[in-house]
Amino acid sequence: MRRGDRARRGLQAERTELAWVRTGLAAAALTALTTHMAGGLSAQVLAATAAGVVTVIAVTAGALRARALRAHPEPAPAPPSSFALLTAAVVLAGMVTLALVAT
Amino acid sequence: VSSEPDPTDVTRPPTDREPGDDGRPPGPERADRAGAPTDDTGEREPDYRFTLANERTFLAWIRTSLALLAGGIALDQLASFEHTATRTALSVVAVTLSLVLAVSSYLRWWTVQQAMRRGEALPHPVAIPVLATTIAVVAAGTALAIIVL
Q1: Over the stretch A36-75, which tens digit does the pLDDT of each residue have?
Q2: Positive or negative, the Cα torsion across B78, B79, B84, B90?
Q3: What is the pLDDT of residues B37-92, one digit of tens each?
Q4: Binding-site residues on chain B for chain A (CB distance < 8 A)
Q5: Measured between alpha carbons, how far is residue B51 from residues A3, A96, B57, B88 in Å?
Q6: ipTM of predicted assembly, 2 dp
């Protein structure tokens, strides 16, 4: 493999890894914000749990994806379940937030 | 003689080229060049670079959704105007949009991946005008509320 080819492949995977890292960081920031902003202990626990689930899923799926990207020079697509799980967690966090904002 | 590959050489193996580096715009019609048929329907797994690009786009939409969620919370808690109903309404719109975006990001990832497997044109991103319009409405509503209320 030529050096240029290796760099191209490495950068594609690296950018994808970084995208997962950014998503995990965004979820962590949301967790901190919701916990700080929610009024009352029960609302804080609820908001922190919902946003925390998003963070855990994003970080775990990102770590698994990063390992897969490093293992194969031309990686297979990520399993749809990781996308579905992350989407479901964001929807759950959104519904909890909606309930807290509306009440 | 330079050892660097000629970027205009389309005879290079597909994995040696970056999307768009043969002078043609990257597109789904090029995405089926690398894979073998995945099933009887003749679908092919697209070039892994397009797959990764689709994955990053999904993540970007999810981050946009998270940002809207945070924006809705901030609007509800930090807005400087006192009219509670207006504040709540604007927050609800932002949070609802984040929910819609989260679901649409998954659907878009799925439809784009399927389109690339079939070698079809990529679907039009319908969420972008919805996102732009709703953000403009929320921003205008917030500005108006700050001035008037």
Answers
A1: 888 788 888 998 999 999 999 999 999 999 999 988 878 8
A2: negative
A3: 555 667 888 889 999 999 999 999 999 999 999 999 999 888 888 888 999 999 99
A4: 3-5, 15-16, 18, 34, 45, 48-49, 51-52, 55-56, 58-60, 62-63, 65-67, 69-70, 72-74, 76-77, 88, 91-92, 95-96, 98-99, 102-103, 105-106, 109-110, 113
A5: 23, 32, 10, 39
A6: 0.90
